[in-house]
């Protein structure tokens, strides 16, 4: 039976630990707003895609917790509202509802427990809320 030097065994162990935990880093996943611009209002739908950065694959089935929106991208730390996770029929797309009462940049923050990962991943996605577009009646169809 061959003996393996202790330094080689430790190096192998260190590499295994490094590569085993590297995948749980937040930089391994991309959180993409769909779309990045939404109309401000009550119960606004916010959609997020979670993709694996290296292979660009959608990640379905993540457990979402601690969701909220705030104005931190604009430097307003005090204005925060809860965001509510909703089921989505779109593969790899996560839906939230939140109140966005003012125009500006809003950060949706949440914790995602991704299947196969040992640690949850903290995510922040930025949206721009704009004034709702007023629908004007066309000349052929005046209001009744």
Structure characterization notes:
It is a single chain. The chain is mainly β and 144 residues long. The chain has one domain (28-130): Sandwich (Immunoglobulin-like). Helices cover 12% and strands 48% of the residues. The protein has 1 helix and 8 strands. It has one helix at residues 6-22; strands at residues 29-34, 37-39, 41-52, 63-71, 76-86, 93-100, 104-113, 121-130. The protein has an 8-stranded mixed β-sheet, with no helix packed on it. β7 and β8 (121-130) form a beta hairpin. The longest helix is centred in the first third of the chain and has 17 residues, at 6-22. Residues 8-24 have low confidence and may be disordered.
Which regions are unreliable across 5 or more consecutive residues at pLDDT < 50? 8-24
Q: Calculate Rg over CA atoms.
A: 22 Å
- Tally of extended strands? 8
The number of helical runs is 1
Tell me the β content: over 45%
CATH class division = Mainly Beta
Reading side by side through the largest sheet, how are the strands ordered? 1-3-6-5-4-7-8-2
Spell the H/E element sequence: HEEEEEEEE
How far apart are the termini?
A: 93 Å
Residues in helix, %: 10-25%
Summarize this structure briefly:
The chain is mainly beta and 144 residues long. The chain has one helix at 6-22; strands at 29-34, 37-39, 41-52, 63-71, 76-86, 93-100, 104-113, 121-130. The longest helix is centred in the first third of the chain and has 17 residues, at 6-22.
